[in-house]
Amino acid sequence: MKRLLVLLFLSVPLIASANVVWPSLYILSQVYCWYVIGLGLVVEFFAVRFFGKASWGKSAIVVGVMNAVSALVGWVLIPISGILTEILLLPFGQGTFHLSHWIVDYVFVALVNTCIEGLAMKWIFKYSFKRVFWWLFAANAVSVALSVLVPFSDLY
């Protein structure tokens, strides 16, 4: 029964994704674009290498593992962050695609990725979460910002 509930829970954001559009879902679709992934991995690799004080090889392993975990868990949590954005900004009476929603969604997506990846680094590789949080957040902010460029790639 618990397995069925877990499967049901995991399918909810997918069903919601098909019928409702939030900026976070748009960001999510762009974050999984191949060149955004590649550029994001490079940014995070150098962040882990220099700020995490890891060797070149260990940096590659850490970035690969934490991004695999982030991709799997973020697939569920990023759409949920869009719901939280709607709830948070509801009192202001602005539409879903108002600039404030885009900004808050951008920050939430970067924050969700940072928390997932930071916890993966803590639990798997024994890094201090407090030590890695801010530089990992900065690297994720750059990675998520790269997804903004995706629509412009089709212009040429």
As an assembly, this protein is single chain
Mass-distribution shape:
globular
Along the chain, the helix and strand elements come as: HHHHHH
C-alpha Rg (nearest Å): 16 Å
Structure description:
The protein is mainly α and 156 residues long. The chain has one domain. Helices cover 79% and strands 0% of the residues. It is built from 6 helices and no strands. 29% of the residues are buried.
Topology:
Elements: H1 2-19, H2 23-31, H3 34-51, H4 56-89, H5 99-125, H6 129-146
Helix pairs in contact: 1-4, 2-4, 2-5, 3-4, 3-6, 4-5, 5-6
Which labels suit this protein?
single chain; mainly alpha; 156 residues; 6 helices
Could you write a compact summary of the structure shown?
With about 160 residues, the chain is an all-alpha fold. It has six helices and no strands. The longest helix has about 35 residues, at about 55-90.
